[in-house]
Design a protein that fits this description.
Length: about 325
């Protein structure tokens, strides 16, 4: 069976999504694309090797012949598109962030549950082989009880006011760098911790990109149910200093750390083991993983459940920085359930 996919939002990242679907023709085919910009949509349809073009994604949901959608829209449009797709009975892959508020996340969960469709968060860094191996080591007890974790994603972003578009405004991006690139180290932290986040404290900065409404850098501390504490470091202001690893985890029986491709594991009192993995283009890989899971009926690693927890960490970080206090996730505004 091949899954007929409709792309919603045909801008920058959708190119990599199209590559991902094209790489697995035995399980996916791009039946349709939708963008309010007809030229961009036509370009993406051509890249897809021919697909129906829509300028209204709702018309595509009605008439595009798709089983599933792949949402690559600006952040403030995610919730409406997810809910419309669910109500049309389509499975959903959605770029980060899941949405912008707890209330939106609750409406998404209701719509997905009512429709009986699958929603997968396109948390592409979970596809990295070093992450998968680290997760196996942690889950098999290789580190014992996990004490502390660190995840990081920082780079010198050469955005300027003219090139930044919807990302420059909190209303359309949901905040600043933290809810954008910072979403990657946030979901990675939650994945490696393997336990639910309970409280958050954060400091935000604007070091360089002063024309943004939101922050260009963030440091976030997260306490998990099991007692582990995690730190997220993320920025568009600078290239990170050498040897500040992409992720690291310490526990009662040792530690592991990685730059994203090489994984080091040092059992306490034991020998260092180093494994090098090939570099993986993780965005196309997450798209291929999506249609494989739809075909096989296997739950995605991160659905709306994990996506909501990640969102809550980010929203709690914003509240913490604003109010200069530690924020309990249980207290975040939604419908209160
Ligand atoms: N995983 C990653 O590494 C990664 C990298 C870049 C972007 N992203 C995510 O991908 C998403 C899109 O980012 P981008 O950089 O591709 O943005 P973009 O601005 O390049 O593309 C967005 C597209 O959506 C279209 N659009 C706007 N409103 C629409 C509507 N109502 N209906 C249909 N189309 C509409 C725009 O015309 C544009 O072509 C965001 O969620 C972003 O965070 C993820």
């Amino acid at each position: 069976m091949t899954v007929a996919v409709g792309i919603i939002g045909c801008g920058n990242i959708s190119r990599a999504h199209v590559r991902g679907h094209l790489a697995v023709p035995e399980q996916a085919r791009i039946a349709a694309v939708a963008d309010v910009d007809a030229a961009v949509a036509a370009e993406r349809a051509e890249q897809a090797g021919g697909a129906r073009v829509f300028t209204d994604y709702r018309a595509m949901l009605d008439d595009g012949g798709v089983d599933a959608v792949d949402i690559c829209l600006p952040h403030h449009l995610h919730a409406d598109a997810i809910i419309a797709a669910a109500e049309a009975g389509k499975h959903i892959l959605c770029e980060k962030p899941l949405c912008l508020t707890v209330e939106e996340a609750e409406r998404i969960a209701d719509a997905v549950r009512a429709a009986g469709v699958t929603l997968m968060c396109a948390h592409n860094q979970l596809m990295m082989p070093a992450v998968a191996r680290a997760k196996e080591l942690i889950d098999s007890g290789g580190l014992g009880r996990v004490y502390e974790l660190h995840t990081a994603d920082s780079f010198f972003n050469d955005f300027d006011p003219a090139s930044m578009g919807w990302r420059a405004h909190a209303e359309t991006s949901g905040g600043g760098e933290l809810i954008d690139t910072g979403y990657h180290p946030a979901y990675l932290l939650l994945h490696l911790a393997g336990s639910r986040p309970v409280e958050v404290t954060a400091m935000l900065s604007t070091h360089r990109l002063t024309f943004m409404e939101g922050e260009d850098s963030a440091r976030v501390l997260v306490r998990f149910e099991g007692g582990a504490v995690g730190e997220i470091v993320t920025s568009w202001a600078y290239d990170p200093a050498p040897y500040t690893d992409t992720f690291s985890v310490v526990g009662e029986r040792g530690s592991l750390w990685s730059d994203g491709t090489t994984l080091h594991h040092r059992p306490r009192g034991g020998e260092l083991a180093t494994t090098r993995f090939p570099r993986l283009d993780s965005v196309p890989a997450v798209c291929a993983d999506f249609t494989a899971r739809i075909r096989d009926g296997v739950r995605p690693v991160h659905t709306e459940d994990e996506g909501t927890d990640v969102l809550k960490v980010i929203l709690a970080a914003y509240a913490s920085a604003r109010d200069k206090r530690t924020v309990a996730l249980a207290g975040l505004q939604g419908s209160g359930r």
